[in-house]
Design goal:
4 copies of one chain form a homotetramer. Chain A has 152 residues and is α+β, with helices and mostly antiparallel strands. Chain A is built from 3 helices and 6 strands; from the N terminus they run ααββαββββ. The longest helix of chain A has 17 residues, at 58-74. Chain A binds chain B through residues 17-18, 20-23, 25-27, 46-54, 57-60, 62-67, 82, 84-92, 147-150, and chain B through 17-18, 20-23, 25-27, 46-54, 57-60, 62-67, 82, 84-92, 147-150.
Chain lengths: 152, 152, 152, 152
């Protein structure tokens, strides 16, 4: 699917919002692709991101998938709006094992209030990529609220 | 629902497995309830767990919810087994705002291979609790694999 | 949870809308409980509602669960509004086998635009009830659209 | 993705199983594509398949989507096995309005026990197709149980 962004400055808007997500710094994630309706987030492996078997924790895969989908939706929103996750569902189809994860959010349907995204997380191990999670997500556009932390 | 744990040492088994989840130390989560079919995890607020509006990130709510449900299921498994998340779905119904989160995992249906859990995350703000997420999760019992990181 | 319906005539509004759902007549479902935030739908067994093993088809369980949740949400909406399903997720935890199904929709969170419901489907076999599905659903309130089929 | 079916007679096995689904006859659905990992089901519009606004009921979209995904998974299973839906999630992204629906089930990940499928339902109106639902589904392979209704 091809989308056009209404806001010409969507990329800097998304990158600024991503930079405000404290959790992305904590885990070491970076945003590596920002296009209308499509955002990718990468996350190198660290011991402190694991579950009990030493793989990336499913919640960490979900964290970067949720942000990738949320920002994919947000690329298409007007500059004055904000974005919230309504819900998402994720299937963990293989161990999230490797030197890094790549989460991809893709808009499937852009609506006035709700936008639906497809999520995919791939694990890169020894340079080879393998899908480890698939998801579906509903995002909501909030017109009355500017993005960014409220002052104070 | 009331469940009986087949393994009398389920609590120490769950706590040991939880201690191996590197990500729980990273975010500062602790396991505060372990009963047959029921596990609660708490997470105090920190700036580095937030999304762009300064609330807990949905992925962080999901991370503790996923572990709470996973360990709720694991309480009912035999000692020789392991547990994996097949999938989960989560609805974020209110901002995850407050001094801490409490994630509760409750087994709804314990099957031989698959176990289904209900997830709830509440935000505690000024001492008052409010539900901020509801979820549903499918866990899988793996008999051939001991829990814990494979050696070397 | 206890809810109050803003519209005093919510019950007749829900029953009239249910009566317009052609598919409920086709499958033989009836609405057996209508309270603020809570709706139950019953469906007697018939051979022509089955999947390949002779149980109720998962889609049929989903159909009555979706309507039960949708109408549970709709009890709390103003009379001038309409209701649409945004999404739902359902876990089939036991065969839907027996003389009838009962689907229960319960509002978990009533919001201005979105309402989240919990779904449960039980199968009644030889007079004994057993849960066969659990779900979670997001409903949307549409203010600009009256319920009922558009003329012409 | 490209898959190979282990059972050379997968197509006749799927068609025979589909013919045993009483509900497919009731609603008038037919299976129009059966390939390894891919099944399509079509459903012409009828008044008795509708919700209160005169569109196809979300549960009916879900019914054919669930069977499309289930049979897509089943194409890859051995002849001696059976298939059950573990869970699915569906987003209704546009009114299911038109002269027919087409549900497409596609295997995303084929596992030994669990198989994950992507679901799409499109509505065809005046000959033009538009996506009206996206879903994600988990199917389970049951080795001890032959497909088809138990005798007696």
């Amino acid at each position: 699917m091809t989308f056009k962004a209404a806001d010409p400055d969507f990329e800097s808007r998304i990158r600024a919002s991503f930079a405000r997500q404290g959790v992305m710094r904590l885990i070491g994630a970076s945003i590596v692709r920002v296009e209308p309706g499509a955002v990718d987030i990468e996350l190198p492996f660290r011991e402190d991101l694991t579950q009990q078997h030493g793989y990336f924790h499913a919640g960490i895969s979900s964290t970067i998938a949720d942000s990738a989908g949320g920002y994919a939706a947000y690329t298409l929103f007007p500059a004055s709006s904000s974005v919230l996750t309504v819900e998402f569902k994720i299937n963990l189809v293989a161990p999230a094992e490797g030197e890094k994860l790549v989460a991809r959010g893709r808009v499937k349907k852009a609506g006035r209030t709700l936008t639906v995204c497809e999520l995919e997380v791939a694990a890169v191990k020894d340079g080879r990529e393998r899908a480890c999670a698939y998801g579906l997500q509903t995002m909501m556009r909030i017109d009355a609220m500017a993005d960014g932390r409220p002052a104070g």
